[in-house]
Automatic annotation (TrEMBL), chains A, B:
GO terms for molecular function: catechol 1,2-dioxygenase activity; ferric iron binding. Its cofactor is Fe(3+). Pfam families: Dioxygenase_C, Dioxygenase_N. Residues 131-159 form the Intradiol ring-cleavage dioxygenases domain. GO terms for biological process: catechol-containing compound metabolic process. This is Catechol 1,2-dioxygenase. InterPro entries: 1_2-HQD/HQD (IPR039390), Catechol_dOase_N (IPR007535), Intradiol_dOase_C (IPR000627), Intradiol_dOase_core (IPR015889), Intradiol_RC_Dioxygenase (IPR050770). Belongs to the intradiol ring-cleavage dioxygenase family. Keywords: Dioxygenase, Iron, Metal-binding, Oxidoreductase. The keyword Iron applies. Coiled coil: none annotated.
Length: 289, 289
């Protein structure tokens, strides 16, 4: 026998050696690193056979909970902070542009194009809110014709795609195009905090570890402009519960905004909202691509 | 906001803090370690979003390939050396007893009880082989009445449970009880090397990484005796292909045995086998429980 046989001491090296012939160098690198960290984990906790069996059962059930409209493995990645880490590693801004956060599982359909000023709250529920901002390049130059794709929950904490029989199609989502000064504005409602789906294996993991399934109230954005790197992010509502314990770790300080109340019937009439209403201002700065 | 928010630098600490309230201390320890090693892996390779998506798809398909008779996640654990590592960590012998190896996925049914000397090769195929050995305690004392549960592939490289319509039920498996001197012996055939199921996602992973799916020829054993720790192990055939590249890393030097040919018609008649035949001797030493 020429190759080294398995031993507890050298387990990661022996298994990594089996991947040494991987034709694609990047796949070889990823598998080698995965093996090393996975074996480190097993040795670190001295995983028991009963725990290993429980892990096999958990992973199997997680796979079998997935359907065309539910992705339980993404949820698992989310609650372990892996989705957020991958997002962050791949979108370092160096502090000079709007920070990114997770896309989340509810950007499942193309949002309808809207006109500036449109009301995206088609179900007539919730606290009226005027959302506005400016999209700029790295030196503050306005980006005219940028697209701003937004989506959020309704007053009950659900996205339209979660309630196809309850909410009007396209409720609380839309794609806006910035004006000559890079500005956008539209009418909506204040988004609401909500639980991630917690009736599957990931929900049971949260329960077993004393964690709640909630995300703080937020509005999703994808801003894109020619010649610039798009950003996928949220703006979070400053007075929302769960801001410091987001189940998927999406909150960054730079993404939190106050949503002050405006009590001014004239201004309300001007923007087409009931009085009083809230305002949410979120400017986005993009890096050049 | 009181709790620390997510950052690339402190991602593992921030996520681990979310598990700090886990009521069960062992689960808290396991999840904290898992988070740390998983985040180390993502940072180590700077996993791209496309790779993360591929991983989510792979894990989902692995879960959805599982059926009541196929466990693709165990197969994944096997080819990453995790099954073997868990087995080894939980059955350290200190070099004073028979080493263990993986149970494998084919011990799915209770093996039929057999009499010493029985022939377990019910399908009449293969190279006849007399298997014998002695079960002893740590000081070499014979263990009378110990049970020896054995199972192996037939000449075509399949277990009976894989071919319920082809092989007789209980083919090449059985439970023997040692005699007053702790000895066991039975008639069988030389086992054959075989591929693990490779038509699913794990098979595609092996193909993409230039690995073959084969296991070297072996005979499974579970030996158990009152007052002693049972051992789950294999004996490997010394001249088998793949001894130095077992797809599941199960081979240990101490478990490999020659299977010499005996060409002696008188001895063949005595043991009830066709001449010539092979002999395989495997003694098992158990630790006290």
């Amino acid at each position: 026998m020429s190759a080294e046989l398995f031993s507890e001491e050298r387990s990661a090296e022996v298994v990594a050696a089996a991947f040494a012939g991987t034709p694609d160098p990047r796949l070889r690198q990823v598998m080698t690193s995965l093996v090393r960290h996975l074996h480190d984990f097993v040795k670190d906790v001295e995983l028991t056979e009963a725990e290993w069996e429980a892990a096999i059962g958990f992973l199997t059930e997680t796979g079998q909970t997935c359907t065309p409209t539910r992705q339980e493995f993404i949820l698992l990645s989310d609650v372990l902070g892996v989705s957020m880490l991958v997002e962050t590693v791949n979108h370092r801004t160096g502090g000079t542009a709007t920070e990114s956060t997770v896309l989340g599982p509810f950007h499942m359909v193309a949002s309808p194009p809207r006109e500036l000023g449109d009301d995206i709250a088609l179900d007539g529920k919730g606290i009226p809110c005027l959302v506005s901002g400016q999209v700029t390049g790295p030196d503050g130059e306005p980006l005219a014709g940028a697209t701003v794709d937004v989506w959020q929950t309704n007053e009950d904490g659900f996205y339209d795609v979660q309630q196809p029989d309850v909410q009007p199609a396209g409720n609380l989502r839309g794609i806006f195009t910035t004006d000559a000064e890079g500005r956008f504005w539209f009418r909506s409602v204040v988004p609401r905090y909500y639980p991630i789906p917690d009736d599957g294996p990931v929900g049971r993991l949260l329960a077993a570890t004393g964690r709640h399934p909630y995300r703080p109230a937020h509005l999703h954005f994808i801003a894109a402009a020619e010649g610039h790197r798009p950003v996928t992010t949220h703006v979070f509502v400053a007075d929302s519960p769960y801001l410091d314990s987001d189940a998927v770790f999406g909150v960054k300080d730079s993404l939190v905004r106050e949503v002050p109340e405006v009590d001014d019937p004239q201004r309300a009439a001007q923007v087409g909202l009931a009085n009083p209403f809230r305002t949410l201002t979120f400017d986005l700065s993009l890096l050049r691509s």
